[in-house]
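Take one protein record:
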Amino acid sequence: MCSSRDTAKLFEDCYFCGSNIRGSPKKRFAISLSALSLLIAGPAVAADMRAPAPRAPVAQPVAVYNWTGCYVGAGGGYGMFNQKTQVIETGVVDGVEASNGGRGWFGTVQVGCDYQVASNFVLGAFADYDFSDIRGDQITFPAFC
C-alpha cells in the first residue's frame, strides 16, 4: 500500500510501484476498451424491425350546399351631385347655362325565400322597396358673351 497523503504523490507512487489501487492491468485494459467502445459505437439499429405501417388518410367530409331558406336585407346611404350644363350648337354658345344639384338620403329593403329543388335548381321569390329623399334645384342663367 502507498502511504503518502499527497494525492498526486499517491497516484504516482502507486502507478509506478505496481500497487493494486486501480486493479490489475487486465482489468484496466478491459475498462478502457469498454469505455472506448461506448464512445465510438453508433446507435443500435435492429435489422428485423419493420417501419410502422402508414395510416390510411382520413376522408374529408363532402361539403353539402343547401340554398333553401329565407333572408331579409337592408341598405342605404347619402347621395349628392352637382352638374353644370351649357348648350352649344354648331360651335356657338346659345347663351343659356344651367346648374343642377341635389343632396339627400336613399335606401332599400328586401325580403325573400328560396327553395332548392335539386342539386342545381333553386326556386325563389323576393320583394324589395327602394326609397329616396334626394332633392335638388336647377338654376338657369344667361351666359355672358
Notes: Confidence is low (pLDDT under 50) at residues 6-17. Residues 11 and 38 are 26 Å apart (CA to CA). The first strand starts at residue 69 and ends at 89. The first helix runs from residue 7 to 17.
